[in-house]
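Weekly puzzle thread! Below is a chain. First person to post its structure in token form gets bragging rights.
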Amino acid sequence: ENDFGEIDYEKVRTTIQAAVHFLDNVIDMNRYPLPQIEQMTKKNRKIGMGVMGWADMLVQLGIPYDSQEALETGAKLMNFIREEARKASIELAKKRGVFPNFKGSIYDKKSSYFKGQDLRLRNATITTIAPTGTTSMLADASSGIEPYFAITYEKNLVSGEKVVNLNPYLVKLAKKRGFWHEDLVEKIKNNKGSLRGLSEIPPEIQKLFPIASDIAYEDHIKMQAAFQKSGVDNAVSKTINMPSSVTPQDVIQSYLLAYAEGCKGLTIYREQSRQKQILERDVQEKEGIFLRKIDDIRYGRTWSIQTPVGTLHATINEDEEGNPYEIFFNVGKAGGDILAVAEGLGRLISLALRTTPAKLSLSKLKMIVEQISGIGGSSSVGFGVKKVRSLPDAIAKVIEDYLKEKQGENPTEIILSEEQQSIFSLPIENNHGNICPECGNATLVYEEGCEKCPCGYSKC
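Winning reply:
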């Protein structure tokens, strides 16, 4: 039995006829935000019928995306779609009339803009390859004329959840040909969502299922051009995927090639140019380049230091090579606002460390100390070199001590004596609440069923 099929052009024809009729109806039934938009839309009656699921179709035809046969198939199919769509629009024009702005258009023989095609159309433009990211998900099809982003990938939802997707055509083919096993999913994920180079997958199947990053940018552009030149009235939505190692010269060449091939526009995406992608392959980043991994068991030390808002407890964790990559802050007896600020600072510094190469982590901490050291608030504790002006200033002193230890120096002792604590904590004795919106001090406490501040502010 043949694993692959062929295009049912008769079914495509009847679908086109229904689609053109439907889209023309939408123009009349639509609700428009402005009268001017409604007027212009109804005068030109432009519709944008296109395709999606192109990568799915090629797989089912047994044609690799990055092949000459795929380009020829795309050109033939889009030509067929345009011709049948025009026939449908002409038939509608016989019943409903040509689009109101027909006179003087490129289809009017008497017009100076006439381009040699004497067509009495209902719609000024008919075909478009639109972006179908969401609609293709609803239809459970590949997006537009794009190749697969990955054979297995994770989708980030707004809720924060991640959904794992696996190409169903690969599963079906693998089971039919006998190379399917449950570990295959994990192996594909560890291979950046690609089949290329996996020994257990037949070479012809690896070739049949290329993902966007497997395809040279020239082949991306040629596919866009094949559709653009063969039957698309408007523009083609297509992303030209490039690796993170791409050079400016490569980008220049891609635009020049697209221009030479007759593309109306070009969208380039360089991998990892944005930290959060809607679709993510399970990419194993080079160590220290993007995000250092966190081990399940971590080792570190904790420092304690007096601050104007309570005692700061700072924990610095290191990796197995002794490089800092995580910091936690907690403020004893502090209110919720202070704890939130402390946690936020800890997360930001940890993120800065984890996105820094391990060998540069100490330099990164030094930069952080330079930025936050000496920040002052409304009160302070200590005096001289031991004076702590604020929570950020205390964090800077802790990190500074840590850096001195790493460099073999004796750290400066910040912990105050009992006598010093009794003297310098008097003005801030009650500063263990939330931040008051009126005076800005951490003196907003919950008493008698209400949050109050000594400055006179009350939430009740």
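Puzzle host: Confirmed. Bonus trivia for everyone else. The radius of gyration is 32 Å.
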